[in-house]
């Protein structure tokens, strides 16, 4: 598109308004950060949803608070409350939905600042959730607000949501909104999830996930005469050795043509999440051979692999170990399967962000896929909106780390990119 005089003036105004709102955006991000919305268990969700909702209301959004009634994780002590604000332009469509999850992962060790202090230092906002992804919520809200402050009449409409539980699967959050039809291909034209994507990168999907549990069953006996029993932990050891020696090298040799970042995640991977067997090691000990051992695995698969062959590969590995070790008794149980997601080529949301990134940052955007999943899967599979990506402030590598921070300059730039993209996606320019 050739820039018209009016468009140049609109863009200039937007950039000026966002620069002028920098302190306000930093303050608001700090306010959200001070609410410790740690998940699990899902603390302080109501307080955080209401803080976001109040700001949206102040900015002229019609706000409501969808609660995930009936979901097992929605309890009296930890209610699953989301927040959605709608600002209608001249017409309802096109409707662009900006989403951010406001739950954060537990703090962990190694912090040198108060993770919930909302501390600003050296041009950075520190705190658990600063980059993943409370700064992203601020960027979404202020991108929309900048359009209003610039006096630009919107053609279509903007929706901004803050949702819960993304870190634990998003079932009471974005999946819930999608199931309720709040985000749906019947009404929603584009979705941008403002996860941290390094300012110039657009995430167009993610690898697949297969979480599974393997249980080995042994036979209990007196620990002084272990030869009368079968040790389930030793049996699990055989499986782990086979994974280490035979499976992992194969996975490492497989790579995808999808631009997953970081590049190490272009290979198939497997992580051992946890293992438990026999007696609790910090409890009082009795002389017993362990009769049960369980381990949970996290297999991330490539679009090219396909889930059936991924599961089949685990089944045949277990059969192979059992064949060589006839005492091995095991059960394989699927815990979670997420198919890979990929934004279709030629999606308008990608084009709008690419153009805005070039305009704001003066360099081309890059497209990437995520090593882990995020709420795009629910937007794609349940809501049926494939015109969806992740783009937002913060460095992905800092997510879930101690001393997590978001650079203020990145927050401002991403807000500008989002504001320009909203203009074009709502047909307002
Ligand atoms: Zn996140």
Describe this structure in words.
With 429 residues, the chain is of the alpha/beta class. It has 2 domains: 5-206 and 340-425, Zn peptidases (Aminopeptidase); 208-338, Alpha-Beta Plaits (2-Layer Sandwich). The protein is 34% helix and 21% strand. It has 10 helices and 16 strands. The chain has helices at 5-20, 22-33, 45-58, 130-149, 174-179, 232-253, 307-324, 348-361, 376-381, 408-425; strands at residues 62-64, 83-87, 95-101, 119-121, 124-126, 157-163, 190-193, 201-206, 208-217, 269-277, 292-301, 329-338, 341-342, 366-370, 388-390, 405-407. The strands form 4 sheets. The chain has a 6-stranded mixed sheet with strand order 1-2-6-3-7-15. Strand 4 and strand 5 form a beta hairpin. Helix 2 (22-33) crosses helix 4, helix 4 crosses helix 10 and helix 8 (348-361) packs across helix 10. Zinc ion (ZN) binds next to helix 4.
As residue ranges, the low-confidence spans are none
Annotated CATH architecture of the largest domain: 3-Layer(aba) Sandwich
Q: Which strand order do you get reading across the main beta sheet?
A: 1-2-6-3-7-15
The share of residues in helices is 25-40%
Q: What is the tally of beta strands?
A: 16
Provide the number of structural domains: 2
The arrangement of helices and strands along the chain is HHHEEEEEHEHEEEHEEHEEHEHEEH
Q: Main β-sheet: number of strands, strand sense, barrel status? A: 6 strands, mixed
